[in-house]
Amino acid sequence: MVCEKDPLVQEVCELYEKISSLENLKPSKDVNMLFTQLVVTCMPPSPIDVTKLCKRIQEIRSKLIRLCGEAEGLLESHFSTILGSYENPLDHLNIFPYYSNYLKLSQLEFDILSKHCSNYVPSKVAFVGSGPLPLTSIVLASFHLTTTSFHNYDIDPSANTKALQLVSSDPDFSERMFFHTTDIMDVTNALKDYDVVFLAALVGMDKDAKVRVIDHLAKYMAPGALLMLRSAHGARAFLYPVVEPCDLRGFEVLSIFHPTDEVINSVVLARKFPMTKHSVEHRHGPTKLPNKFFDIEMFNPLNHVNLMEELDIEEQLS
Could you say which EC number(s) this protein's record lists (predicted)? Predict the structure, then answer.
């Protein structure tokens, strides 16, 4: 059982105490400094397994993920407002402090996607939890999927208003970028239209909520469609929820990628099974997967070598 004695856990707990005592989480010198310290603490590769944390630390982790989510939303909203004041907002995206991370993450996601849909370009993509600054959609649409239409879903109307402001003046994007203000749990038949669905890291901030969203997507996505999720690995799981292969009932896991550089999120790619009586309706017990193995890749920026190992999914599900 990992608890307070671990130096990394100790440091995370101290930062949690400082962050939770802040007056608010809007961008400011103190907020930026504390969250930067938290990210720097959690970024190095770590053998820590958050599922083995004691109950008190588990509770702190849950609260910390929510605080990170709130701060991230406020940061994106702040910069979306600034960008929206420009005549051509898309020309100024680099003012967002983490823009280069989005460029790297989107490149990574596109590369993984390309390996598994090399024979076609997705015509319609959904991004669930796009927020006020939908950088993944914008970067993918700009550089990688230049003919694809993007349907961005967010539950917050003000987030969509700000996001729309960023793309409405661009003649290409205004025809390919769509915004839907709704809870994804209320979207059913429309999900069948998408070749790929991206699920943002902070949609479903705890395990139960995340699994409910994944189950809903498994029920309504088109058979054979791809689901791209963001997860976290090692100490980075103090910042974002973790998605395990066993959470993806109704999907075949194709690839899991754990970056070890400044891209914080792990990337998981899965394919929706053809509809069978075992895939969606039977929610209990391990799903029998047709492919026994999938790739786990870890990227080390120091030597630019991809370390690949095969992992037995059946062990993960047991």
Answer: 2.5.1.43
Say if CB 139 and CB 103 are below 8 A apart: yes
What is the phi/psi pair of residue 7, to 5°? -60, -40
- Residue 190 tokens read as 């429309």
93: tokens are: 């995206």
pLDDT for the residue 316: 38
Per-residue confidence (pLDDT) for residue 194, from 0 to 100: 97
Residue where the block lists tokens 């509770």: 59
> Order of strands across the sheet with 196-199?
177-181, 149-154, 124-128, 196-199, 226-231, 266-272, 251-259, 293-300, 305-312
In angstroms, what CA-CA distances link 311 with 110, 265, 285?
23, 20, 20
C-alpha closest to that of 166 among 141, 186, 192: 141
Regions of the chain with pLDDT less than 70: 1-4, 275-318
Which residue is associated with the tokens 């509809």?
Answer: 275
Bridge partners (DSSP) listed for residue 242 = none
Domain boundaries of the chain, sorted by first residue: 7-93, 95-317
Q: What is the pLDDT of residue 111?
A: 93
